[in-house]
Amino acid sequence: MRVFIQTHGLILSREDREHIRQRLHQALARFGRQAMGATLHLSDTNGPRGGEDKDCHLVVELEETTTVIRDRGGAVRALVDRAVHRAVHAVNRQLKELQGRARRAPSLSRGRQEAPRNRRLARAMHAIPGGA
After folding, report:
1. Among 49, 54, 62, which residue's Cα sits nearest to residue 80?
2. Mean pLDDT by 10-residue block, N- to C-terminus, for the chain (132 residues)?
3. Which residues, 6+ apart, have CB-to-CB distance to 82 below 8 Å?
4. What per-residue confidence (pLDDT) applies to 102?
5. What is the pLDDT of residue 1?
6. What pLDDT score does 17 carry?
7. SS3 label, residue 2
């Protein structure tokens, strides 16, 4: 799995970069081969003034879906940890929805007649002698 870390207006230490990489690998390893990669964009909106000014944009790419998480905070590690946590929950939710769709799709047509697209037209056709 590939992990890209991009920063704008922010300098990350080697330890912070390694922490972020390990955190992403650890969190996304549970998805196995489905996890294609992750891109993390970090930016500092108002420079060295401090405060809740660091933006995090995390894109997690899977085989079937892509998840995008945005967050804002003051401390880089805490911000990234929160974004990764939210991404894992979002990916789990999306994968469950995809599995649910795959299970439900075949059963929709079993035992049911196809509903007419235009009910007025269907009623009119039944009202005509010799109609459908």
Report:
1. 54
2. 90 92 92 90 80 88 90 90 94 87 56 59 68 54
3. 71, 73
4. 62
5. 82
6. 93
7. strand
CB 1 within 8 A of CB 25: yes
Task: Identify whether the C-beta of residue 39 lies closer than 8 Å to the C-beta of residue 20.
Answer: no
Question: How many CB atoms neighbour CB 106 within 10 A?
Answer: 8
Q: Which of 94, 65, 92, 70 is nearest to 83 (CA)?
A: 70
- pLDDT (0 to 100) of residue 132: 55
Please, are residues 24 and 31 in contact by the beta-carbon 8 Å criterion?
no
Nearest to 80 by CA among 125, 117, 123, 27: 27
Structure tokens that stand for 132 in this block: 């459908």
Backbone angles phi, psi at 88, to 5 degrees: -60, -45
Please give the structure tokens belonging to residue 32. 């196995």
The one-character DSSP state at 85 is H
Residue 93: burial class (beta carbons within 10 Å; 0-12, 13-18, 19+): exposed
Residue type at 40 in one-letter notation = L
